[in-house]
Write a structure and sequence with these properties.
mainly alpha, DZANK-type domain-containing protein, two-stranded antiparallel ribbon, transmembrane helix, 5% strand, three-stranded antiparallel β-sheet
């Protein structure tokens, strides 16, 4: 118990404050529960205070379940107020000795101001160069509205960048599907070639593939708004990858079909 004062036990008997077992007065700990045997007096210092036994009136710890003198239970114990403790002197230490005179400091230790200084100067900001002031009415907070944009995509007569003037394999291999998603929607009419005779169908599809392969990038650049040339190139690289894979797959299926038919 942290708030008790441990002293040698005296008298004919000594009860354990934890379990109430009677022990030898010269014992060190309880023979039943092993709790330390202590004596508590009314003048024992305790920050939590003490309890008075309702039967014998002796002082006990606030956590004691049994009186250490008579062994009675501490149900109706009377609380004893803790003894006030003396507070140490908290006065700051004073230093003695001569002080060095500093004409540039005031008595509080802060820099002293010249008596010729105008107090209102502290409230003013730094001096502003009148020649450096700008006419706000002549400034455009949104920038120049006449600055030309480098992105000419999405315009009918827009200039074609150098990175766009290339052969388009996706437009050559899948002209009808490619055009729908690339800003050239009128290529969807090529689906109607399926209803034409085989010879005319071949001529129409071959001509459209060659034309779109050569001019597909230019038509796509002017037919749709792109974020940048890099965005345009990445989009068509992805479509080229899909077109090549699909063409290879269809060619492999046709080859297997021809071999199967010729073998029978």
């Amino acid at each position: 118990m942290a708030e008790t004062t441990e002293q040698p036990t005296t008298g004919d008997h000594h009860f354990c404050a934890h379990c109430g077992t009677e022990n030898d007065p010269k014992g060190y700990a309880c023979t039943r529960c092993g709790e330390r045997l202590v004596e508590v007096h009314a003048d024992s210092p305790s920050p939590l205070g003490l309890n008075s036994c309702p039967k014998c009136g002796n002082a006990n710890n606030t956590r004691a379940a049994f009186c250490w003198v008579c062994g009675s239970e501490m149900h109706n114990a009377v609380r004893i107020s803790p003894q006030p403790q003396a507070q140490p002197d908290a006065r700051p230490e004073t230093t003695t000795g001569p002080r060095t005179y500093r004409p540039d400091l005031n008595p509080a230790g802060n820099p002293a101001k010249s008596p010729t200084t105008n107090p209102q100067d502290d409230l003013r900001g730094p001096a502003i160069n009148q020649d450096a002031e700008l006419d706000i009415s002549q400034q455009n907070p949104f920038g120049s509205a006449e600055a030309p944009s480098d992105n000419t995509s999405g315009t009918k007569d827009g200039e074609i960048p150098e990175g766009v003037k290339k052969w388009n394999w996706a437009a050559f291999l899948m002209p009808a599907i490619w055009g729908i998603f690339s800003g050239v929607p009128y290529t969807a009419v090529l689906f109607g070639a399926a209803f034409l005779p085989p010879t005319i169908q071949f001529i129409v599809m071959a001509g459209a593939s060659l034309y779109l392969g050569a001019k597909g990038n230019e038509l796509s650049w002017r037919g749709k708004k792109w974020r940048s040339v890099e965005h345009f190139q990445a989009f068509h690289r992805q479509w080229t990858s899909w077109a090549v894979k699909l063409t290879v797959a269809v060619a492999a299926i046709l080859l297997l079909y021809i071999l199967a038919v010729s073998g029978t």
